[in-house]
User: Fold these one by one.
Assistant:
Number 1:
Amino acid sequence: MPFSFRVEARSHGARAGILSTDHGAIETPVFMPVGTQGSVKGLTSRDVWDTGARLILGNTYHLYLRPGVSLIERAGGLHRFIGWDGALLTDSGGYQVFSLASLMRVSDLGVTFRSHIDGSLHEFTPEAVMETQARIGADIAMSFDYFGGIPCERVEAERSVALTTAWARRGLKAMGARSDRYGYEQVVFGIVQGAEYPDLRARSAREFTELDFPGYAIGGLSVGESKDATWDLTERTTELLPVDRPRYLMGMGTPLDLIDAVARGVDMLDCVLPTRNARNGTVFTRDGRLVLRNARHADDLMPLDPECGCVACKNHTRAYLRHLFLSNEMLAPMLATSHNLFFYADTMRAARAAVVRGDFDAWYRAFVDRFTRGDRESAARAEVET
Amino acid sequence: MPFSFRVEARSHGARAGILSTDHGAIETPVFMPVGTQGSVKGLTSRDVWDTGARLILGNTYHLYLRPGVSLIERAGGLHRFIGWDGALLTDSGGYQVFSLASLMRVSDLGVTFRSHIDGSLHEFTPEAVMETQARIGADIAMSFDYFGGIPCERVEAERSVALTTAWARRGLKAMGARSDRYGYEQVVFGIVQGAEYPDLRARSAREFTELDFPGYAIGGLSVGESKDATWDLTERTTELLPVDRPRYLMGMGTPLDLIDAVARGVDMLDCVLPTRNARNGTVFTRDGRLVLRNARHADDLMPLDPECGCVACKNHTRAYLRHLFLSNEMLAPMLATSHNLFFYADTMRAARAAVVRGDFDAWYRAFVDRFTRGDRESAARAEVET
């Protein structure tokens, strides 16, 4: 089955779609758990599957450095290397060379950087990055982009847009937007940049639309700018992107961020937030956040979220989770991660159902009301306790 | 169904039995994974179940200190607190107050010690320890014992035997050997002590046999004495214990230790070795140990053990496991732990099948030959590499 995307319903700016890949059809909006180094931290592949996830993300930068592309290729591609039957997306590495590596030089040709692991010197060119992702074998690869940060001098933001478009063209020329090295289809999405400048975002969106990618990401947001700016820029960008292509907002966010993005026509999201917060003992519920180490949970025999169907909520109490965190048991982050990802997937399922029903707006308001009220009450109790 | 034990077959000193509890029937010989603080480190309850384990161990000393017995009791007992449907055994805490806590005073009455967590002062009396274990809700509890270490002055070893018998009597007087606080039967096993003195071991075994416990443990071994001494003392003790009761050798060991114990009529074993080694990257296979961080596994696309049916062997390669260990991914110890426990359970199943077939001796020799040959070859390769 070739890659395809179909919007099935719309409601108040939100979309319900189906993203078809050779590794399964994925209902959108979808949140993609992050498996940076070939593992969603703390979960087996079966655990990830049980959260409801069918599309997960791997980081090209990390996998390229360790274990290296040759091994992944010899193992039969990333799906087989990590034992994942669902679909996979790899990012371009553009964000990581900027944020994690020591960036040595950015030229028209590409980026030279030093590994954050051992300081070794490497070069990413747009052609090499597309080749690397094809060899890694993701169902969806990302065009190599240049991310200049926010805030960003206008001249630097202009350079970011120009380089990102030029690199996209070179990537397309070298590899095309579709390939099938492993006998299944691999497609490439473009990434819109432009920092905090609406006109540059618009220019980037126009240039990428002309390049006719199977899908588009909005990159370089949620890096310190205000939420108003995030949503303004997201909205302005999605409006310019072709309605028949999936839109992927990179690196967001909290449950409220997720549904705020969905409300603006975003179809795909990813973030380390639910997994990283889980490891720190913070879980998300329909009634806001719970900080599991808090003394208030010492005797709390409730599940994390009584309406949740995850492995932690079906089998365990808050008191047990708290005990595991205080005892530094690995099972603590494992269960909290399962919960957070299940909750994220559940939230996307509920949002989609609301779109299909045609009452996304009412669902959105009810979700936000309940989540923020619970969060406020928790904060108030925490203040009384301290 | 009341607690019972039945020996179904014997072969060359080894026994195949059935240990029946209200939380299921357990085939013996059995290895019990250790869930010290209410979690087998790195595994969910389902993961533990999938290794084949049906009887796991909790540590009274740890659970008493954290999260405390009241919470476990209010949660409905340890099974419900940790979400485990199989059977549970708790140790007596006698070994931990000696090895982990700061031991303050040992008197006829009991033991005073300081917590290894916060230095707080606590007292374990034989009556309190039996009450604590009953409240924790294990299917099998252990009589409170006094462990003097090995080597041990004879006078101290004599004291250990005398105290352990006296405390067993007091525990029995206070609680009996069977109770049902949670609506299922809880039984108590006695622990034979006697350090490295065969005559004291014999005295302890005789005194405990007179007390008519539903099962017997051999305590205080594998603490630094020679393997010859371990097996000599084990053999001398099992010979004196009633043939119709299960025999539990505490704190052993490697796969070879397991089957050496089984060869001497041991029915039950526990140890942190397979789980601790797994976390350090060492796994056991039919062909000996593998140290997963070794460079030789960098490109090794074999499963850990091609004959193993565990989640790691069915889905993953040595190269992937090595990558996870080098990347400090939690999934590394998780998968290695699943493997080691599955391998231990498998080894016990194979040993049992050999006993039932009546050719335990041939099976034992084949297992030892293959395991030690593989281990020697690994060691030889490691030497060449370094």
Number 2:
Amino acid sequence: MDPKSIVDKMMQLDAYSQWMGINVLHIEAGACTLSCLVSKEMLNGFGIAHGGISYALADSALAFASNSHGQQCVSIETSIAHIKPTQLNDTITANCTEIQKGKTIGRYVVNVTNQHNELIARFNGTVFRSEKTW
Amino acid sequence: MDPKSIVDKMMQLDAYSQWMGINVLHIEAGACTLSCLVSKEMLNGFGIAHGGISYALADSALAFASNSHGQQCVSIETSIAHIKPTQLNDTITANCTEIQKGKTIGRYVVNVTNQHNELIARFNGTVFRSEKTW
Amino acid sequence: MDPKSIVDKMMQLDAYSQWMGINVLHIEAGACTLSCLVSKEMLNGFGIAHGGISYALADSALAFASNSHGQQCVSIETSIAHIKPTQLNDTITANCTEIQKGKTIGRYVVNVTNQHNELIARFNGTVFRSEKTW
Amino acid sequence: MDPKSIVDKMMQLDAYSQWMGINVLHIEAGACTLSCLVSKEMLNGFGIAHGGISYALADSALAFASNSHGQQCVSIETSIAHIKPTQLNDTITANCTEIQKGKTIGRYVVNVTNQHNELIARFNGTVFRSEKTW
């Protein structure tokens, strides 16, 4: 299966990414760009987007980018730094690129930006590349 | 303000934690325990809970535990390892404890377990302790 | 091979751990305790131990604890928070415990303390458990 | 003080960076490039460079790059992924760049490469920017 078909299949069954209203802007083997709009349900007690929202967008980007090579991948370790608060109605965009594509390990970095192109979060993810294929 | 009042106030305004159906099981200065039920909207394309769900539960636990001392805290750096898949209708519980309470920095670890008391995720969080109080 | 023999073999060939003067205080399957004395060569430009010293002690502890099950393990991802400065002639002790022993992944936490039993660093490590045995 | 003078001063007093034979190849505000030669004393029990060596080189790069703005900085959180083994007599180079320069927080990434320009380690570091100046 090609990168686009794999991500279409993953996205179609992904109830949570649908709840978030995630748009797939770009996909290629090892990389992808996703975006979503920050809604009222996504805000925390400070009136800004909950940290779980930018994490989830970045984590979906990691899943799509790493699986798009055709080998099934599972997340081993992820980290995120929340750099700038995100407001209601902001559009946030996660851009995932590949640092390493090893035999069993893949490493990715995701920059999450807002509509003003400001960096709001930086995410690093490591995946295990299984032998199962899509 | 005491720990319980601070968390009540944070929780009351937190639309996303409410969407997740988070229950505050225990709160004390520097520690807390939260739980939620995994619903259909929380599943990803593999039919298991999206990584963003256990992250968000742990991140709320970090926010409540660190702010409960009375000083306002913001997250600097968080990481999570997803250890075991979580299924529909599982109840997941995040237990946050304090590693360090410094002048400007606080460090916390969160264990996320399921109803069988199996570790499903392990989260580490570092916060900046501001001078603003609740 | 038993845990102690594996670590003896690893330690015997480990020129850098020898340069550091590492003592193996305790070893069992999945856990170990190491210590060393902070010498003049280990200090940085602030007159305290270089961050690389407590990292290296913790990283050796990770290697010994994870390999001691008998399966060869390689580090995937490590992180360390430096909590308290370490002075010349301090004795620092790294205590490594196992969080998870999966089929292919192992997870460990290492607390590094000084002779006053103060936490000076906290380290997390994830290893890949290969099929090669000792 | 300018970036070069700050790093000269830090390096001059840094016994451990001197033991490692660190060369400062480039320094500017918020960035630097360091290298060193892997000697026999730096090898572990597998006959490759101990993980503490590439960590220490990257950690020195973090210290020099972050302090070179003139404000004293201390490390809050660092992580490193060891990607490729390093052999005796390899020359390793750490290139540190700035992701964020906030009021109190700075974030940096360090790529460590060998003489064949292969990525051997990837390091992320977060510092606290104190009010003390050089």
